[in-house]
Design goal:
Layout (H helix, E strand, L loop, with lengths): L5 E6 L3 H9 L7 E7 L2 H11 L3 E4 L8 H11 L4 E6 L4 H10 L3 E4 L4 H12 L4 E2 L4 H4 L3 H4 L7 H7 L5 H11 L4 H8 L3 H14 L5 H10 L4
Length: about 220
């Protein structure tokens, strides 16, 4: 049994926000906050000493912005998972964060009930985007989502349990289509479209249609 705790570093310049985020981890026996700081420079130096598994990063830091800090952290250790936890939602900042290598981009008005689950998922290697972020990147995914550089054939082989119809539905999910719109495009009932979406979510082992779209983009299906 692996009793190793997930080491988390919190990089946030607002003290009240740090306290609020830190409180979410109270009672989580598989996680620990090993460092909290308001400084990008201190975060970089601390990463060298503490080797955190997950970093909760704000963009608007007083010395170095969180995007640049992310780049430095991943130079130190490419396996660090950086979660951009921010109130910033400009197209440029989202693009720059993803290109820098963040594993998640989450707005600060996040659902606290699911946050711990998301952190665990990110630690295990998943990618997660706030639903507010997806519309900003949908049309520019080829240059934005860090790709594993796998071919479509490799993706299909890996997810061979997806049917051809489910691939068609997945592409429409990536295009931002609702169940009703998918039904109209494929000339199927909305009930059938919903069933396909549920099957895709289950087969790709994700929580919702947004994460299904992100996984498809990241792994090179579209």
């Amino acid at each position: 049994m692996n009793n190793k705790k997930i080491k988390i570093m919190l990089v946030e310049d607002q003290k009240l926000m740090r306290m609020a985020i830190k409180s979410l981890f109270d009672g989580q026996h598989d996680m620990e906050i090993v460092k909290e700081t308001a400084s990008g420079k201190e975060a970089i130096e601390s990463a060298k000493l503490l080797n955190p598994d997950v970093v909760l990063m704000d963009i608007g830091l007083p010395d170095i912005n969180g995007i640049e800090v992310t780049k430095k952290l991943l130079e130190i250790n490419k396996d660090i998972k950086v979660i951009m936890l921010t109130s910033h939602l400009t197209e440029q900042e989202v693009f720059d964060s993803l290109k820098a290598g963040v594993s998640a981009y989450i707005m600060k008005d996040f659902d606290t009930e699911n946050f711990i689950v998301i952190v665990r998922t990110i630690h295990q290697g998943a990618m997660w985007l706030d639903s507010k972020v997806v519309p900003l990147i949908r049309d520019k995914n080829s240059n934005t989502i860090p790709s594993k550089q796998v071919t479509r054939a490799a993706f299909r082989e890996k997810h061979a349990n997806l049917t051809q119809r489910e691939y068609e539905v997945l592409k429409l999910i990536v295009d931002g289509k609702s169940n009703n719109e998918i039904a109209k495009v494929l000339t199927i009932s909305e009930h059938t479209a919903k069933a396909h979406v549920c099957n895709i979510i289950q087969k790709l082992v994700v929580d919702d249609r947004t994460q299904a779209a992100v996984k498809a983009l990241k792994e090179g299906l579209v």
